[in-house]
């Protein structure tokens, strides 16, 4: 930008000198050529393309740069994190063709749990982009994101998020009894977030081992959540989506594991479970502005 401003200043001075010396036209025989060369039509075209780029396309192009050298557990640099977060922070429902009165967000009659719709925008080995559409009381049960960095942008609505991180070095315990006399495998986790989020709000970010890698979404009102995962889930690569129960810390007593006195409410025991039978998650065709993968 600075170089272009200096170039424009020189052009103005050059034109003025040419005008003042119109009796000696040979003094600046290449003035018109110089002005034309410095007008930078290529830069102008690039600026116009950038200005006309849709928010969805801008998100895609940003993700390509942020996750270009990504992999499991490979967190993008702080500069890349801020860059992608800034793009997502500006997103509005209309940027992806959504409004709260669309059928995705209506309560499902006759079902115990409301149906949640997933709109797929893009997926490659490095990242994926999609939208979860939750009607009121819709729940995405507690689940993990192994080796992933995840960006979640609440587009509209009120969403309750409860999230945990594993306690470092806490063992997986199997020699304890619950109230039913069974021996579940459990592991200690620290509560990270347990709050309502109301749109518009900042983009939430979770990391492979911090920021609430295990979370649960509960829709207080109809909600739309734009998600970016880097890298995405992949069963062949061992990145499975695993679901969990969470139990209050006092439910189990484990001699080898303890938490600071008075902070018990900030911890929970998590137990791996099968995918909930009542989870109604369906896919639908995304009809908003399209991504062009050149």
TrEMBL record:
The entry's keywords: Dioxygenase, Iron, Metal-binding, Oxidoreductase
CDD domains: cupin_ADO
Ranges where the record places region Disordered: 1-54
SUPFAM superfamilies for this protein: RmlC-like cupins
Highest taxon listed in the record's lineage: Eukaryota
A Gene Ontology BP annotation from the UniProt entry: detection of hypoxia
Record field: compositional bias (Low complexity): 21-41
Named cofactor requirement(s): Fe(2+)
EC annotation from Swiss-Prot or TrEMBL: 1.13.11.20
Listed GO MF terms: cysteine dioxygenase activity; metal ion binding
Catalyzed reaction equations: L-cysteine + O2 = 3-sulfino-L-alanine + H(+)
Family statement drawn from the similarity comment of this UniProt entry: Belongs to the cysteine dioxygenase family.
Protein name (Swiss-Prot/TrEMBL): cysteine dioxygenase
Originating species: Tripterygium wilfordii
């Amino acid at each position: 930008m600075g170089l272009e401003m200096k170039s424009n200043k020189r052009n103005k001075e050059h034109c003025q000198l040419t005008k003042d010396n119109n009796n000696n036209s040979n003094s600046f025989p290449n003035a018109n050529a110089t002005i034309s060369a410095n007008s930078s039509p290529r830069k102008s075209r690039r600026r116009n393309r950038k200005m006309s780029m849709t928010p969805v396309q801008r998100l895609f192009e940003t993700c390509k740069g942020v996750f270009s050298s990504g992999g499991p557990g490979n967190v993008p640099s702080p500069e890349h994190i801020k860059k992608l977060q800034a793009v997502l922070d500006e997103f509005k429902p209309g940027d992806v063709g959504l409004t709260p009165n669309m059928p995705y967000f209506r309560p499902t009659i006759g079902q115990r749990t409301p149906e949640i719709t997933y709109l797929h925008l893009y997926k490659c080995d490095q990242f994926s982009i999609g939208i979860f559409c939750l009607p009121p009381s819709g729940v995405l049960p507690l689940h993990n994101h192994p080796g992933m960095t995840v960006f979640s942008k609440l587009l509209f609505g009120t969403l309750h998020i409860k999230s945990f991180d594993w306690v470092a070095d806490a063992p997986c315990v199997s020699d304890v009894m619950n109230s039913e006399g069974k021996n579940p495998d459990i592991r200690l986790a620290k509560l990270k977030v347990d709050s309502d989020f109301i749109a518009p709000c900042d983009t939430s970010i979770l990391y492979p081992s911090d920021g609430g890698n295990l979370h649960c979404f509960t829709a207080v009102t109809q909600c739309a959540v734009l998600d970016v995962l880097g890298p995405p889930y992949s069963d062949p690569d061992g990145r499975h989506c695993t679901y969990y129960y969470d139990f209050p810390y006092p439910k189990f007593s484990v001699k080898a594991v303890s938490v600071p006195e008075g902070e018990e409410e900030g911890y929970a025991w998590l137990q791996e479970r099968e995918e909930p039978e009542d989870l109604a998650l369906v896919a639908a065709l995304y009809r908003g502005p399209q991504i062009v993968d050149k």
